[in-house]
Amino acid sequence: TEGMNAQDLGKILHREPTEIVKKLFMLGIMTNQNQSLEDDTIELLATDYGIEAQKVVPEDIGDLDKYFELSDNNQKDLKKRPPVVTIMGHVDHGKTTLLDRLRHTHVTEGEAGGITQHIGAYQVDIEGRLITFLDTPGHEAFTEMRARGADVTDIIILVVAADDGVMPQTIEAINHAKAANVPVIVAVNKIDKPGANPNHVMEQLSEYELIPEDWGGNTIFVNISAKTGQNIDEVLEMVNLQADILELKADPDRLAVGTVIEAKLDKGRGPVATLIVQEGTLHIGDPLVVGNTFGRVRSMTNDRGRRVKLATPSTPVEITGLNSVPDSADKFVVFEDEKTSRQVGEERAKRAELNDRQKAHRVTIDNLFDSM
Ligand code: GTP
Ligand code: MG
């Protein structure tokens, strides 16, 4: 009924538009034939004519969440998928060292040889079992994703330096994990150091409900040295154990949906986005909407910088072929046909632009007042 005026109503009700205007006047509403009417007015008028008006809610084609659907874990035909792991912890406690260690121990020489493209996410293969690690820069990215309902993390590895103990960002990470309901594996790091006191870390963390199994709790603790490589394989084993408990599954046979890890504008290739596929399989040529932009997957690169043709659940890939650069934590949805994808994408782009303009407008007015 949006935008309907007396003329339109006249047609529907088989009455002269002048009669409609007159009738409305009698009902206390001043209007002319061309003025669009409120829903309430139309309802009132229709009732007066003895007709029940039905509000037509325009379909919200720009609502991407409507198309973003994850499989119900009880669904059959689901297949096991690799866990997506985020490493968190206080500054300097050894997150990057651990990540490097995990990667280099388990990426074969040939693959690790060249300078691998940094795509903010990568996979390791432990005897045929893949684990995806997200290299999220700091906690903000994690918070942002969770705030926008796009949390892709299945497991958190909490790194705590044994010589330093629990620190502010350690607590922050624990709170993130709790709020997101993500299980934590504690990696007590730097046990090679003379001042290392892993027991003290256990005591401290017990106060935050992270109680080691040895003490009757259910949190996995591993004492490691990211520097020497001690017990690194045990961390990976524990990740796989935890993944088994979680029974992580997805449907690889549907249209892909997932989340943007990071995105940028590349001089030569245009907008590039690192996506993590959460459901379905992403193919070259797929029409997709990503946040407020859209396009077709023109090329896909894996975490080793190799060209790939498809990406299955929990796989990170870098894609090109989008019209503009999306934001991290944006969701993506693949559509059956390019037409729908374009419709949804254009609607979203339009809205985003309107939003930006309104924002800019507000800023201008604020500035105006500020300068007065
Ligand atoms: P931010 O990214 O700044 O938050 O730090 P981070 O947590 O990534 O720490 P990073 O891996 O950069 O390590 C900080 C310092 O600790 C570096 O000098 C590492 O060499 C050192 N380090 C990391 N792990 C170990 C370890 O197991 N033993 C010892 N002795 N030093 C370590
Ligand atoms: Mg680091």
From TrEMBL:
Signal sequence interval, chain numbering: none
Protein residues bound to GTP: 89-96, 135-139, 189-192
Keyword set, alphabetical order: Cytoplasm, GTP-binding, Initiation factor, Nucleotide-binding, Protein biosynthesis
Keyword DNA damage belongs to the record: no
Domain Tr-type G: 80-247
Example of a GO cellular component annotation carried by this entry: cytosol
Region of interest (G-domain), ranges: 83-231
Location in the cell: Cytoplasm
UniProt GO molecular function: GTP binding; GTPase activity; translation initiation factor activity
Keyword match Nucleotide-binding: yes
Free-text function comment from the UniProt entry: One of the essential components for the initiation of protein synthesis. Protects formylmethionyl-tRNA from spontaneous hydrolysis and promotes its binding to the 30S ribosomal subunits. Also involved in the hydrolysis of GTP during the formation of the 70S ribosomal complex.
Family of this protein: Belongs to the TRAFAC class translation factor GTPase superfamily. Classic translation factor GTPase family. IF-2 subfamily.
Protein name in UniProt: Translation initiation factor IF-2
Organism in which the protein naturally occurs: Xylocopilactobacillus apicola
Phylogenetic lineage: Bacteria, Bacillati, Bacillota, Bacilli, Lactobacillales
Gene name tied to this protein: infB
Whole sequence portion shown: 296 to 667 of 874
